[in-house]
Amino acid sequence: MSTLSTRFLGHSFASPLMNASGVYCLDVTELKALESSASGSLITKSCTLEARSGNPEPRYIATPLGSINSMGLPNRGYQYYLDYAKSFDYQRKPLFMSVAGLSLADNLKMIAAIRDAALPAIVELNLSCPNVPGKPQIAYDFSAMDQMLAAVTREYTQPFGVKMPPYFDFAHFDEAAAILNRYPTVAFVTCINSIGNALVIDTETESVVIKPKDGFGGIGGDYVLPTALANVNAFYRRCPDKLVIGCGGVKTGEQVFQHLLAGASLVQVGTALQEEGEGIFARLNTELSIIMARKGYSSVESVRGKLKTL
Ligand code: RRO
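That is the input. Now the predicted structure with RRO docked in place:
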């Protein structure tokens, strides 16, 4: 079988697979399950300055083609995840911390605390939460995104990453990538967050299926795979000095392989992890190894970006 071990920002990973932030990472019990799983790394739930209980339930529903959620950023507050990161065994696997402040000032405060802790944890700044009522996604407001990155990169000089929403137009790929490319310490780009503000309707009940925002929420799973692959590849092409983490629509090793072809260095699993549990990582590792061996690839790096065009 081919090796799945890989390197990313100077850290060693036994597998390119990890959870998508938000899934299996709200508290230490869930995070420990990921530590013990066959994932190559793990990331904590996007955090805010203070703990939040999030939106009213039901706020996540799986459908035959994926999921819709409007969780509303439930989390234990950044200090909880920072304490976890301080006690984490970095010999076992690398750890990412997701940060999603409700304002620029909140992000600066959390980032400064993470910086001062001087840990090996890797920061993923979430610029794309679609579900906090009254708070538009930063990455859909290019001037706000630029200001956020200017301020964060002044405060935090270590390499870090950004979690991006999907874009649907080449003009937006170009503009977003041009902004990211102004910041060399933005070392990686995670594509994509859920496709925001979709609506799932139950025909029998003639009703929406989640309570917050009159049923509007972010979708993941099968619905989003082609959009995720497009965004991974669009940023891989436009940001040659950055790494890309793929996220969206992964439930088999074949889909992990497609993310690698599109340009991903690591691949996150969201909806399928939520539905199948942490045992999914062992299955995906096996399936990915089999595909790589069948196609004659001996390493994750050798697959990356090998997508052919016609
Ligand atoms: O908590 C959420 O509602 C949530 C977040 Br912060 C996010 O970034 N993406 C998502 O689908 N849900």
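The radius of gyration is 18 Å.
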